[in-house]
From TrEMBL:
It comes from the Bacteria. Transmembrane segments: none annotated. Residues 70-119 form the HNH nuclease domain. Pfam families: HNH_5. GO terms for molecular function: endonuclease activity. This is HNH endonuclease. Keywords: Endonuclease, Hydrolase, Nuclease.
Length: 165
């Protein structure tokens, strides 16, 4: 079980284990915003809600000057797992400008792609194949991209990640 930690301004900071989140709550460093009601934590001395989302009581300043690092999961998440060429479900990534022609691993050059389109495109650019891209790849912005662990978000977190993503 994982817990989303929100800064005092409701921006996502991190994903921690529910045990770490419960320690923060018990030490009055955080409050529970949303709990998993079906799975309480029991001990010899008490019963606590299992936190799903917690809010820090004090604001923590985090520098956000660096862009999010490029990763396979990040590209698939940015593109909502949809192929940039046909719109079907994507499970691979593709270099718009192939690596053999100097294409780099950057947010602007990588797109989510289905295996069929990736194999058909091969070592060519979309223009050479006669394809158009459904969207232009860009660098993702927002606090949620800098948070590690939100690659597989829980449904409880949707309301807190959507404004920042």
């Amino acid at each position: 079980m994982r817990t989303l930690v929100l800064n005092a301004g409701y921006e996502p900071l991190a994903v921690v284990s529910f045990k770490r989140a419960l320690v923060l709550v018990m030490n009055d460093k955080a409050t529970i915003v949303q709990a998993d009601a079906g799975h309480p934590v029991r001990s010899a001395t008490g019963l606590w809600e299992r936190p799903s989302v917690i809010l820090l009581t004090r604001y923590v300043r985090i520098p956000r000057t660096r862009p999010a690092p490029v990763s396979r999961q990040g590209v698939l998440r940015r593109d909502a797992r949809r192929c940039c060429y046909c719109g079907l479900t994507a499970n691979t990534i593709d270099h718009v400008l192939p690596r053999s022609r100097g294409g780099r691993d950057s947010w602007e050059n990588l797109v989510a792609c289905c295996l069929r389109c990736n194999n058909a495109k091969g070592d060519q650019t979309p223009a050479e194949v006669g394809w158009s891209m459904l969207f232009t790849p860009t660098v993702p912005h927002g606090g949620a991209w800098a948070v590690r662990g939100v690659e597989q978000p829980l449904r409880d977190w949707d309301a807190y990640l959507v404004p920042a993503a």
